[in-house]
Amino acid sequence: MKELSLNILDIANNSVKAKAGVIEIDVSESENADIVSIDITDDGCGMDEHMLAKVTDPFVTTRTTRKVGLGIPLLRQQAIDTDGHFKISSQPGKGTKVHADFRLTHLDRPPIGDVASTVVSLIFASPDIRFLYKHKTDKGEFMLDTQEVKEQLGDIPLNEPEVITWLTEYINENLQSIEGGKI
Ligand SMILES: Nc1ncnc2c1ncn2[C@@H]1O[C@H](COP(=O)(O)OP(=O)(O)OP(=O)(O)O)[C@@H](O)[C@H]1O
Ligand SMILES: [Mg+2]
Asked: Which overall architecture, per CATH, does domain 4-177 show?
């Protein structure tokens, strides 16, 4: 994957497919600690131990259109290749947590990419899912909760074009204020 934002999109789409009601996306970038980390947590259908053990193997997937699932194995490989770590935990009926971190200054670390567009496209595609997006840097922290946005919008749907444009700008402005999303 060329950019970490695309990994985020892929892992969060797994959560959407798992029928999650709430998806939390945590991104943390720290130049001081020389680390970038991504945590994606959902309350979807989860996986049993058997599936979980196999899920990092690129030849395991429940997809019927194609035989290999690549999202998880790719993220794991990228994390390991950049002196980072990967962890997945899951419980059937409860949900799934995926953690990946990368050494920020590693030459092979993919750029973070356009996280605002990734988050907004996830929201646009699944307006009924509650997304909690947190982004942390050495300069500060920013959080977006689509539940709060919905309450403020009242009758206006979350995936209205104007709302989407506003959300993208809102995220980018907040990222700028904590100097995030530039790595
Ligand atoms: N959050 C999740 N909740 C429940 N099951 C999951 C979750 N994430 C992954 N899985 C299971 O693990 C399998 C492998 O996931 P992975 O992202 O690697 O491949 P894929 O989604 O099947 O295909 P691709 O990502 O290449 O489109 C999925 O098919 C699904 O059965
Ligand atoms: Mg996938």
From this structure: 2-Layer Sandwich (3.30)
